[in-house]
Amino acid sequence: MTPTALAPISLSPSVVVFDYGEVISREPTDADRVALVARAGVPAEAFWASYWAHREGLDRGTTSIAGYWQAVARDMGAAWGPLDVHELWAIDHRGWLSVDPGTLAVLHALVDGGTRLALLSNAGADFSGWLRHGSFAPLFERVFVSGELELVKPEAAIYEHVIDELDIEPAQFLFVDNRAENVDGARAVGGDGHVFTDAAGLERWLRSLA
User: Does the predicted TM-score (pTM) go above 0.85?
Assistant: First the structure.
């Protein structure tokens, strides 16, 4: 079902900076998760604990894709060769390549209102092509990927970098993320933010500011 176009939202001179995962994108489906665990060939509970335990290095850009999956393999006592890693990476990567139509409608309402937008994602550098060149990319003035910056949310330095690059005052920095600690990080440097749960709640918050 095609989402209904929304009335414009004007928040100039503020810049609304969006997280990607589980805000613009939907979370991986149960089928995506089952496929990844099945390919890994290890118990699901232990796999997901290890998957997330090593994720910061990948998001920070200090761990390679191969290094990340090798770290997970060591935890699992698995022997994954290069071909296994290619397949695991592809299944995992594909699970995050989705869009939430409700959030996209809000993004277009902001653009229609003349509001500046940027994107800030904790993600490996391998996501940069999708984030910079996907169909939604022209909505954003700038795209910031943690794996390229070697900084991750909620560290103050990553928000300060974004604020500096956008040439705005901290009070003009409005950040949308599905994790409360990341929104708190934006507030800690003088910005404001919204913890995303759904597009309707996001729209209400933005219109309350407008």
Answer: yes
